[in-house]
Write the structure tokens for this entry.
Amino acid sequence: MKLQPMDIPKNASAASVVFDALRKAIVEGDLEEGVPLRQDEIARLLNTSRIPVREAISRLEEKGLVTSQRFKGAVVASLDLEELREIFDYRTLIEPEVIRRAVPGMTRQTLQNARDILDAQTLTCGDPVKWGDLNRAFHERLYQASGLPYHQAAIDKAMDRVDRYLRAALVRSGNVAKSNAEHLAIWQACAEGDADLAARLTRDHITQSCSALTENMAHHRSQGSRG
């Protein structure tokens, strides 16, 4: 199991630490779809008991990152193309409206922070883990100005389901530079205070990401089935 051993601080919630460690490993692709999550092994690696591990796995299942299978127990959830399209359809409905509402409340500090993230992202094109972290941070920083925490939490959950596929697909397809350019256009629209343009560009960005990802996943799984 590709999970880094660690010691949980005495003043920390063991279940929360285990949850964060497992979520990170799943989202970043270290724990691939279908991998069994054996409670004894996780407890040993993270130097804790099975109780917080069981609680963390239950939370991951609620988020759609883990599923229970007969005879296997908890395994990392897979993602089929129909679910992928549904998630992106949902994102095209909610995220443009969130950024539309966010633009009027964006401060100079918000825009500067987002630009710093964007600049850092251009330097990590070959690293899917770092690029993926910055990708989420860029959108989250802009959306925070919307004052819509429930919407942001829903977006975060949706991203958890697709993030590991999105990171790998963008690097494999060579579309990272294109995605970065789309981010820059969104940022410029926000900086100019054009909420409608920022919303339209965000919708286009999500749609393009969905098309690239579905094509890449279909090809990748087709190649895998032949092997």
Observations:
- Residues 195-226 form the longest helix (32 residues).
- The chain has two domains: 14-76, 81-226.
- The longest strand covers residues 66-69.
- The mean pLDDT is 89.
